[in-house]
Write a structure and sequence with these properties.
- By secondary structure, this protein is of the alpha+beta class.
- Helices cover 42% and strands 13% of the residues.
- The strands form 5 sheets. It has an 8-stranded mixed sheet with strand order 14-28-27-26-15-23-25-24, with helices on both faces. Strands 4, 5, 6, 7, 8, 11 and 13 form a 7-stranded antiparallel sheet that branches. Strands 16, 17, 18, 19, 20, 21 and 22 form a 7-stranded antiparallel sheet that branches.
- A hairpin with a 5-residue loop joins strand 21 and strand 22.
- The radius of gyration is 36 Å and the shape is elongated.
- It starts with a strand and ends in a 29-residue tail after the last helix.
């Protein structure tokens, strides 16, 4: 961990590089990329020297200790690297700069020529490549013509195609042209969005390639990662991403960051001793997708492609990927299908009655049917919804939330429970000391403990997580200026760094007031009593008396999930005094507790699902006020009803793997909840893809971003709350528009049907097309309309939407036929059928336009004129501008020849009639709501969501938040039990058995159809196949 290590006893093998020179350096080993040769100057090459300063050398594969030498000979290993060497990740580079097939740089050793490090021949590698396949995730590309053809398939396109066919059958060419234009434009919009996303991904994939030095035919060559096969010997060093599941063979002990797969914030050591219950080789395993932070060595490839751990996670992503439409769209399409089905049945009856009952010509009857079919199709519904969501996505981007597909906006508004990863999401992913919780003895203060821990740390060793945590905490606790002043009071005369044997650091320094000091920091066992370990040894004063207390405090911190560092100090020639135990933890973000409170106030439950240790998860959950009912991943299996209840009522799970996170999401979905999942690593990708709302947090891996529906570009969860507020505003706008459009469709179908059945009359098909098209186009400004976010999740309900639409449609129909009956008596027109049809068209057009003001607010329409939810100026201009345009076209009908000419006085009467009718209909809505019958609100209402602050007496342990998705469920206290700490490797072994498990249920949210899609953003294994890049929006 520290730059200058003292090894006693047998040394590890250092292969393939001659080492010479003398020195004791404090420089750290710098990570170098596979394409950056190690500087060849003597001052920069790694050196190994004995304690006497004698230089030693080593041939490849030969131990550095000569036969017969003393086993306890002390050697000092120092790695020198000049500051000019730039650390690069050249193993991922543009294809023309990847040097595939060329010899590896000279600094990469070839290793032994026999045994496991011998590598494969080119012929054997080719044979295995044909047997095992490429080291990547297979993709299936959809041809462009299939993509284009799919835009003409669906309920809405089919209805337009039927209308076009009817127009052609009767020779109504103007109507045919209008319908065909709408059909083609709608299809081209969907095809353009889909094609653009695919092309951008393909272009990125073609530009980048991943490489790794591989031993082929006894020579190290640069090989494309996709060409690796089991049995290949690869060379990895600090900064490299592990290209496949590998096993360490020889070289340095590596520090491997497994956070992307397991969520652990502290790197693992490879190799390490195997724990009880682990299979052979577990301590030498390097999993694909992890990052080598320090060290270098040769490794043998064990599994590639879909057989790796990350590959199996990719398989889960494939299985869950491919949202077709959002939940809100699904509900709306259900209502639209009902309306269209009824309209088609009605059209069939009209055709039969007209031809057989009234002896009308078939072409004349087809005209009536055509008008009815056109009226039943909300032609511009997809376009208006797309524009609404596109503008909403732009607003979300300003709030640091990037929407990868537009339907995610609907899902966020409906989210009823949020499952969050811990490391990097709820916490900073950067270890910190908690000085306020430090345990001290005698007159030592907590500030003294932090200062002395910083004095005993090495500022030059930025790779050491403990030293980094202490020094950063020093700056944050005291401030940069005061921290520097406090540290400047100590003048170091000697510093002994950490090494795996003594497991402590010792700083010898002078202090202006205290004089000569010796300060130590390290493991409690190595600070309280060092033993004879070859370093500066001591036994702290009063060790026998305080040992039990110290160990009890250490055990308490350990049970709470803290890592601990002991601090001891001696003044002058006096004995070492045990001063403090300093706790270290990955701290919560500053805004996490407030954001969780706000999310709960929005009626959304929150759970922590993390791969970190159970104790750490419980303590973090306590600090952020989430609750301490965190259970281990072992409680997730086997599946049972009791297990499902535990998932629902717990505050989260710890020590989970990718399949565990996905299982939690599936169970919650099967309970009817709309689930959001946050994450930042490859381990989160399957759950992100399965959840209705996958959220990749700031600095997430490409794998997580590919699987997510929402990508945050600002740290923490506060952006999620902003996204909830904004998405509920968008939902309110969409609901208002959809309610308006369905009500208008129902009114048009009812009016046409009653006119045909009861009056043997109908409206010209052109009028119906104008009603369906013009009224929608004027609604485009609703995408940016003022709206109030609901205080509860917006769960769309098909019955409520349908009931509200029918009531509005029936009331509008009554309004129209009242006008139809009375208008011949007091209108100044010529009394002809064309005049009556034009007047009815204008009345319906104006009435439908004004209906949006009633649909957009659950209260009385006049009360919404003022306040934050008042209609936006663009919406007012568009609605009244459209009505004025149609009125002018009717007033100058003899010139425009679109609408039959109406008298201006009659147009004024129509305006007055429709305004008064709107107020009457809206008053009826308010009366129903006051009586507790909210049939016309379509689920709107329930309060307005704001930005509440934390209550002053905010408890650490919570009950059920009022109005949450778990409301009505009696939550019992979940006591924290200490479970057997099985290793992550053993859990991974179990995951191989059940990673392919498919959980299915009949509940609608979980059973919603998903379409398989495939695309890559970056080469494997830097990213799971981006099967769920939901950047395309499919039009209806």
């Amino acid at each position: 961990k520290h730059p200058s290590r003292v090894f006693r006893g047998p040394l590890p093998f250092f292969r393939g590089r001659a080492m010479s020179g003398v020195g004791d350096s404090t420089a750290t080993k710098s990570s170098a990329s596979t394409s950056t040769p190690w500087p060849q100057s003597a001052s920069s090459r790694p050196t190994i020297s004995s304690s006497a300063g004698q230089s030693l050398g080593s041939r490849a594969g030969v131990p550095l200790l000569a036969p017969g030498s003393a086993e306890d000979a002390t050697l000092r290993v120092s790695i020198h690297s000049p500051k000019s060497v730039q650390v690069q990740h050249a193993s991922l580079a543009p294809r023309d700069e990847s040097f595939v097939g060329e010899p590896a740089p000279e600094d990469i050793p070839a290793g032994s020529d026999d045994g496991p490090t011998a590598g494969l021949t080119s012929q054997e590698a080719q044979r295995r490549l044909e047997e095992f396949g490429r080291n990547e995730i297979p993709e299936v590309s959809e041809p462009w013509y299939v993509m284009l053809f799919k835009q003409f398939v669906g309920v809405m396109p089919f209805m337009l195609e039927i209308a076009a066919a009817l127009s052609a059958a009767i020779g109504d060419w103007p109507d045919l042209a209008v319908i065909a234009l709408m059909l083609v434009v709608n299809a081209l919009i969907g095809f353009h969005e889909e094609r653009k996303a695919k092309n951008s991904l393909d272009a990125l994939k073609a530009q980048m390639t991943a490489t790794v030095p591989t031993k082929r035919d006894g020579v190290m060559v640069i090989t494309e990662v996709a060409q690796l096969v089991p049995g290949d010997v690869v060379f990895l060093r600090g900064g490299n991403v592990v290209p496949a599941d590998c096993e360490w063979l020889e070289g340095d002990q590596m520090l491997v960051d497994t956070a992307a797969l397991t969520g652990e914030p502290v790197p693992r050591k490879v190799p390490r001793p195997e724990r009880d219950g682990e299979p052979d080789g577990a301590g030498r395993e390097l999993l694909s997708g992890c990052i080598v932070k320090q060290g270098e060595g040769h490794c043998i490839v064990k599994e590639t492609g879909l057989r790796t751990e990350i590959g199996q996670a990719a398989g889960l992503v494939q299985e869950a990927s491919g949202h077709t439409v959002g939940m809100f769209e699904t509900k709306i399409m259900q209502v639209v299908r009902v309306v269209i089905l009824l309209a088609l049945l009605d059209a069939g009856v009209v055709l039969w009655v007209s031809v057989h009952g009234r002896d009308e010509k078939f072409t004349t009857a087809l005209l009536n049917v055509l008008a009815l079919v056109i009226g039943a199709v909300p032609i511009a519904l997809p376009l208006v919804m797309q524009v609404t969501m596109a503008i909403g996505a732009a607003k979300m981007a300003k709030k640091k939330a990037i929407i990868t597909h537009l339907t995610a906006l609907q899902e966020v508004a409906s989210m009823s429970i949020l499952c969050s990863d811990k490391t990097g999401t709820l916490t900073t992913a950067d270890m910190r000391v908690r000085p306020q919780d430090a345990w001290t003895r005698k007159d030592f203060s907590q500030d003294d403990a932090l200062v002395w821990a910083a004095v005993a740390s090495n500022p030059a060793n930025k790779e050491d997580p403990i030293d980094k945590a202490v020094l950063k905490s020093m700056e944050e606790h005291f401030g940069n200026v005061r921290a520097s002043a406090l540290m400047s009071d100590y003048t170091k005369t000697k510093f002994v760094g950490f090494n795996p044997t003594v497991k402590r650091t010792v700083a010898y320094c002078m202090h202006a007031d205290r004089g000569e000091l010796k300060v130590s920091k390290g493991l409690i066992d190595k600070v309280l009593r060092t033993g004879e370990d070859g370093g500066d040894c001591w036994t702290c004063a009063d060790a026998d008396q305080i040992e039990d207390e110290v160990r009890a405090v250490d055990q308490r911190f350990s049970m709470q999930g803290y890592k601990t560092v002991a601090v001891a100090i001696a003044q002058g020639s006096g004995p070492m005094e045990f001063a403090a135990i300093v706790p270290i933890i990955d701290p919560p973000r500053e805004d996490t507790k407030l954001t969780i409170h706000r999310i709960r106030e929005a009626g959304i439950g929150v759970k922590m699902v993390t791969g970190d240790h159970l104790n750490i998860a419980i303590e973090t959950s306590r600090l952020i006020g989430l609750g301490t009912g965190i259970l281990p991943a072992t409680d997730l299996w086997p599946a049972s009803a009791t297990r499902d209840d535990a998932i629902l009522m717990s505050d989260g799970f710890a020590q989970v793997l990718p399949k565990d996170k996905r299982e939690v999401v599936l169970v919650l979905q099967n309970r009817g909840l709309i689930v959001g999942m946050t994450g930042d690593g490859v381990n989160d990708a399957p759950a992100l893809a399965q959840a209705q709302i996958g959220i990749a947090v700031d600095d997430a891996t490409e794998a997580a971003r590919a699987a997510a529906d929402v990508i945050l570009t600002s740290p923490g969860l506060s952006v999620i709350y902003d996204a909830v507020v904004e998405s509920r505003k968008i939902f309110a706008r969409l609901r208002a528009y959809v309610l308006y459009r369905l009500a208008a469709t129902i009114q048009i179908v009812l009016v046409l049907s009653i006119m045909i059945y009861g009056y043997e009359d109908t409206l010209p098909a052109l009028y119906v097309i104008l009603l369906a098209l013009l009224n929608d186009v004027t609604m485009l400004p609703i995408a940016d309309d003022n709206a109030s976010p609901s205080a509860w999740p917006e769960i769309p309900s098909m019955p409520s939407i349908l009931v509200a639409s029918v009531i509005y449609g029936v009331l509008g129909t009554l309004q129209t036929f009242l006008f139809y009956e009375i208008q011949p008596d007091w209108f100044e027109g010529d009394g002809s059928g064309k005049y009556r049809d034009a007047a009815v068209y204008l009345q319906i057009s104006i009435a439908i336009e004004l209906l949006i003001f009633s649909c957009r607010t659950p209260g009385f329409v006049l009360f919404a004129v003022c306040g934050e939810a008042r209609p936006s100026v663009p919406l007012l201009i568009s609605v009244f501008g459209g009505n004025i345009l149609v009125s002018v076209a009717a007033g100058f009908g003899d010139r425009t020849r679109i609408i039959h000419r109406l008298e201006w006085r009659d147009i004024a009467w129509i305006w007055a009639y429709d305004v008064v009718s709107l107020l009457v209909i809206d008053l009826f809505k308010v009366i129903l709501a006051s009586a507790g019958i909210a049939w016309m609100s379509a689920g709107a209402g329930g309060g307005v969501l704001g930005y509440p602050d934390l209550p002053l007496d905010s408890p650490d342990v919570r009950g059920v938040p009022a109005g949450s998705a778990l409301g009505g469920v009696m939550r019992s206290h979940v006591s924290t039990l200490m479970h057997h700490r099985s290793s992550m490797r053993s859990v991974l072994a179990h995951s191989r058995i059940s990673l392919s498990r498919v959980h299915s249920a009949g509940d609608e949210p979980a059973a919603m159809a998903r379409e398989q899609r495939s695309a890559s953003m970056l080469p494997y294994p830097y990213n799971l196949r981006a099967a769920v890049v939901n950047a395309r929006f499919r039009s209806f």
